[in-house]
Target: Galactose-1-phosphate uridylyltransferase
Amino acid sequence: MQLRRDVPIFFFLLITIFLLILLFQLHYTVDPSTRAGLSKLIKNQKFRILTNKYSSLWYQTNCFQVQQSQKLVLEKLPEYLKNSHSSKNEICRQFATIFNALFHLDEIYGSLKLSPIYLKKINQWLHNNDVLLEQIRKQRIIKVYNRYTHEEMLYNYMRSQRPQTKSEISSESYTSKLLEDSKKNCDFCGKNYLNSTAEDTFGRLEHRLSYTAANTFKYDRWHTLIVSRNHDTLHLTEDEIVDMFELTKEWFRKAHSIEPMYACPEMIWDAMPKSGASQMHTHLQASLGFDIYYGNIERIRQGARLYAQLNNGRNYFSDYLSVHQILGLTIPVGNAHIVVHLTPIKDLEIMIMGEKLERNFYKALHLVFRTFVDDLNEYSFSLGMYLPPMNESSSNGHDIPVVCRLVFRNPVTNLRSDINGLDLYTSSVIGKDRYILHQQLKDSIYKRLK
Ligand SMILES: [Zn+2]
Model:
């Protein structure tokens, strides 16, 4: 009898345990940013431009084992890291540790078998250069993977040697003609914008060199256009750039004051058709995110939080910048830093990082534009930028800095798109040595700063 009475209790207990297990299995974390409660115990560092005790030249000779007279090359990045890692100097080892905390570095070899007929053709492309021919037979690919943002670069120098189709018209004439022709019926030029553009609900903001116009086809609740009064997006003066961004900041403050929960400032700017710009006239788009940034930026922000959690609260952006400084891939313009970063989206992408969006940041941006347009003859770009959240107290700095990413798109005269399935769905394949681009930028910028 006793046994019979216990049977329902036994089943009740069994079902309860089963339900508890099920509940545990179905528990998902909705917001990964709130996941690791432990991290709250560690105080996360704010973004700071770390002043490395030693110059990049010191690291070059002492850690990478490269003589001062020699230039650094991306091909040898694994060697520089290996030398730093095995160095007797603790500072060199420390650099290798931070690099490895941020990035995974790999060397891959790909071999080719070439028929005599095809070999003849390749020899023509490579102008009978024996060194290049040897390199094409056994190709070396350097893979740099950012462990936290999952951005990646597959660098193969031979990609830059691929035969290109030449256009009959020069990029410069093609661009000038486009800019001139588009001035004729431009909605944004002169006073045309008063009858051809919408306003934000709080009205239009106007500056001497720029004005706002609400986007007629919004992609967010708070989304506007910042339009320069200069049609020519490739030849803006520094003052015109300053005016546009100061107006953007004013618009952010205005929108944020009306709805304070919208606090994540983001900007994009496409110039000329190659980049997907719908209007030729200079205009950038500004938006304020609700609580979080847009996906691509939020991925980096979450990555930075995870980095802090796993590295005693260290600031991801500070370390990221410091690693590039040590590798000799940055150019300072006051307290703004131009970074020729290791995981670009395309060959001609650079970054600008700073604690604040202010004079030096604008100066750096202007110098980058002049380098690409005037010296490297590139005429189309896409820019993405974000500022720290507006609902954070700024007295002690921010977790994230001001970051601008800028990529020049080419060739402008070619119908073929510069973005393909590889870029969209897999990885970034780069053929231009980051050190070469850095040198070009440095030469152009220093010449203008003299
Ligand atoms: Zn115009």
User: Anything to note?
Assistant: Residues 172-449 form a domain with the HIT family, subunit A fold (CATH 3.30.428.10). Residues 35-39 have pLDDT under 50 and may be disordered. The chain has two domains: 56-161, 172-449. The pocket of zinc ion is lined by residues 183, 186, 188-189, 231, 281 (CB under 6 Å).
